[in-house]
Amino acid sequence: MVGLAIGDALGYPTEFLSLDQMTARYGTWRELELPFTNGVALVTDDTQMALAVGDALVDVTRDAVEPFSAATLEPALRAHFVKWLHSPDNNRAPGQTCLTACAALERGGPWQAASVLGSKGCGANMRVAPVGLVPGLTAEQRAGAAQLQAALTHGHPTALAASDLTAYAVWLLTHNCAPVELLPWLRHYALKSRTTYHSAWLGDLAQRAGATDPSAYIAHGWDECLRALDRVEAALRAPDPDQDPCAVTGAGWIAEEALAAALYCFLLFPDEPVTAVRRAAWSSGDSDSIAALAGAFAGASVGATWPGAWSRGVEYRDQMRVMLAPWDTGDTGHAASPRGGRGARG
Length: 346
Hints:
mainly alpha
């Protein structure tokens, strides 16, 4: 979570700048420093909404007396999304889809009616990392929760699939997955999940989106994510660290491109988290979201290796610590490889 916030804060001032403007203002991407305002590295709605998801998850898992399900998670997500909507700190250029859907959630009724069905913006998966950190969930619960938190605002199947993949990547990396193994595991997961519509979590969302076959509806999202993974794999076969990540993976304004760009930056520098988030923030597209996800992957993989001033000064650090305390079990376990073995770092 600290890595996510650091990436977000690093990309906040670069998001709407051209590469030439970044060069004129900051020098080179390898010199990019975390900006502080009155001693605080300010984040955007990416981190704020990740905290909303995390707080909702804590609400339904701490001292839980009911099973973890859509019936328990959806009201908690709705409450925290509406709280974010009205927060005085919600002034960091939030996405229109999130604003529209959260306002509809506040009005009540089925959450599916609030979802913006045609949107696959990266707002769906920029905030999903906490789902990958919750201990004790089954694979179905983790997938269902990841897709549900996305679907409350973004109803396009690619938004759901990309969020599921993002949460799974965080889970893999915190369970001793070697970065070199990450893309094969994600591809295996996407192929295995391709026609699975989690009706217990999504209800009639597919029908509301006009799909006659829920399996075909969700398969469309997974297919777009698989093509995004293809682009990452192709770029890593001939990596160019000095090339704009968005030039090879897409600009990141939509969910599968944000995931792809973040994976590419992380996998360029799997053992250098600061370099990975600098490369992600210095990009021509949705820099804060790309860097936030890259920071989440880096933090999940290598742990707390950020510069001390960065990790201490990032906004909401204390809130993150309180949020994560109930999940800090120390049990990382081992992730099983899709090829039948164990992770290289296991």
